[in-house]
Inverse folding.
């Protein structure tokens, strides 16, 4: 939060920059269809509202303008979030309405003033506004900023933001501030055959040797989980390829082979998709076998059946990668 030195007579009326941390779904709500919601907020509040770019789970929303414009923008955002909560409750059995929650990003050097001696200031804000205010104990990654979470009714949040602005203006940041920049979502990692792969689009790319060595070391220390359980490294669902436009349902059953570390999964695939998985002269299915390290058998077409059965045999790691690659095809 960076106050510009613009003071007018009659108390608090300066130009401020306030940064909010939002999840992707929240940002989508603020932007609206074809950007109509954020355009309306900018026009009606008079504040500049910028949203950080990037394929990140979190985004930074920066609001700049005179304090009056800032408070109008905050009010519009808080009421929009309340509207989203009410709409989501119409399809939910929940009876009590959850509070609206906003997260401010504040330089850590200002958080002491916000909390006050012995927590006196933050307690005063909670009691006078009715909002819940929490200051994170740790700084956000690779920054000197902390998240300040405000929860309550839209009215309580607006009053609380006004009080926070006053404290921030009275106690400017000390030293340089390294702003928090959300990082893009990490690509999922799958381990198979002692090798680590990162999933990029519909391809599994071999990962650097260091991660592979760490996985090999971990496997020496950790026994396989029993069948029916799922390890964190092998989730039960797999990312869908953007090329798969129609929903593909894979029905799966499991049985134990003679080897204690091997298991068998059976998938049922529609006949009209089996060619995509086999490829020309079996090239694609052979690639999947080689990359996953699993044994893959495709049953012959049964007369009158619209489906084919695929049997995958191998360790849980081999099967996980084979299932992902088949789904991607």
């Amino acid at each position: 939060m960076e106050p510009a030195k613009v003071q007018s007579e009659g108390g608090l009326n300066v130009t401020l920059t306030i940064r909010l941390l939002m999840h992707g779904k929240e940002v989508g709500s603020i932007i609206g269809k074809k950007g109509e919601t954020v355009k309306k907020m900018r026009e009606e509040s008079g504040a500049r509202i910028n949203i950080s770019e990037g394929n990140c789970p979190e985004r930074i929303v920066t609001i700049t303008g005179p304090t009056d414009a800032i408070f109008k923008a905050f009010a519009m955002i808080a009421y929009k979030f309340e509207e989203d909560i009410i709409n989501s409750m119409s399809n939910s059995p929940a009876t009590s309405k959850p509070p609206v929650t906003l997260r401010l990003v504040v330089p850590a050097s200002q958080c002491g003033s916000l909390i006050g001696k012995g927590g006196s200031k933050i307690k005063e804000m909670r009691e006078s506004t009715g909002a819940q205010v929490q200051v994170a104990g740790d700084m956000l990654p690779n920054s000197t900023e902390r998240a300040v979470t405000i929860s309550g009714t839209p009215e309580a949040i607006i009053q609380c933001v006004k009080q926070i602005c006053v404290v921030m203006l009275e106690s400017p940041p000390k030293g340089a501030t390294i702003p928090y920049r959300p990082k893009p979502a990490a690509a999922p990692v799958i381990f198979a055959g002692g090798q680590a792969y990162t999933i990029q689009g519909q391809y599994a790319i071999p990962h650097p040797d260091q991660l592979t060595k760490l996985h090999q070391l971990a496997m020496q220390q950790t026994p396989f989980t029993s069948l029916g359980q799922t390890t964190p490294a092998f989730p039960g669902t797999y990312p869908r390829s953007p090329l798969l436009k129609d929903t593909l349902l894979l029905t799966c059953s499991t049985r134990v082979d003679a080897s204690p570390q091997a298991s068998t999964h059976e998938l049922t695939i529609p006949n009209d998709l089996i060619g995509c998985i086999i490829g020309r002269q079996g090239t694609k299915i052979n690639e999947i076998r080689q990359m996953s390290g699993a044994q893959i058998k495709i049953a012959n077409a049964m007369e009158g059946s619209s489906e084919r059965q695929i049997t995958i045999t191998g360790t849980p790691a081999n099967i996980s990668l084979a299932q992902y690659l088949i789904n991607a095809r």
Summary: The mean pLDDT is 78. Residues 50 and 163 are 23 Å apart (CA to CA). The radius of gyration is 27 Å. The first strand starts at residue 15 and ends at 23.
